[in-house]
């Protein structure tokens, strides 16, 4: 495990008492405090609507907390606007359930779009990307095992392959944190394993911090290092995967707080849903 201690300079994501309320509804996040260390692979689990996407969106500043504070890579997101926010976002890659590729463009062009955040002006067509960038994009495609598909239209690939292209596109921006919001929710079990293995290998090789939301407990326990369980916006489990039983993890869903409470967390006291 590469989990940072409290206060360590290794902390790259720091949530302190974060609550988020949309309008007058029930809070989407409530009093969430957690720290994530550089290179950690953290999986968010919880029922639909428990707050996983909302939490991820706080990490790259797409949402701001209603109360509490979020610091990412040393930037206080409560204070970051304009350029500072754009700069931070270039350091955080995002992979989504629906891949968000442009189907009519080639695989290589799709990967090149990962650099758009740091380029000036609109880019249409491969020739408008520098040779160096195209080489870099090819390297990323090599990493995800799809270099031989570079000139194929993206919409001719399988779902699993498209998600690997999306990972390559995110890697092109050389992120320090990779956020993955249900990256395998649209994939068959075999492709899901492949994509999770890929993200896990890259996290280890590059010491890339990953925060990934999932609905499959088995995948979380196979590939994650730490599980953060959310229920109704609250953290109800925060524990290393090593030593965590399936039954204890299932308590995230069952609502039996005592089960979750019995888990020894390596991350400080567990705030339980009450
Ligand atoms: N932009 C928004 N406006 C209003 N309510 C929102 C918004 N985004 C999220 N919510 C609400 O916040 C709560 C948490 O939603 P969120 O999408 O974070 O859950 P989730 O755990 O990611 O769910 P799923 O597994 O279905 O993706 C839900 O009640 C949702 O309706």
UniProtKB/TrEMBL annotation:
Please identify the protein, giving its name as recorded: Phosphonate transport system ATP-binding protein
One GO molecular-function annotation for this sequence? ABC-type phosphonate transporter activity
Name the InterPro entries for this protein. Answer: AAA+_ATPase, ABC_transporter-like_ATP-bd, ABC_transporter-like_CS, ABC_transpr_PhnC, MetN_ABC_transporter-like, P-loop_NTPase
* Residues covered by the ABC transporter domain: 13-257
Q: What's any one GO cellular component for it?
A: membrane
Q: Which UniProt keywords apply?
A: ATP-binding, Cell membrane, Membrane, Nucleotide-binding, Translocase, Transport
> Does the keyword Heme feature in the UniProt annotation?
no
Statement: the UniProt record of this protein carries the keyword Nucleotide-binding: yes
Query: Organism source for this protein?
Result: Haloactinomyces albus
Superkingdom of this protein's organism = Bacteria
Identify the taxonomic lineage of the organism of origin.
Answer: Bacteria, Bacillati, Actinomycetota, Actinomycetes, Actinopolysporales
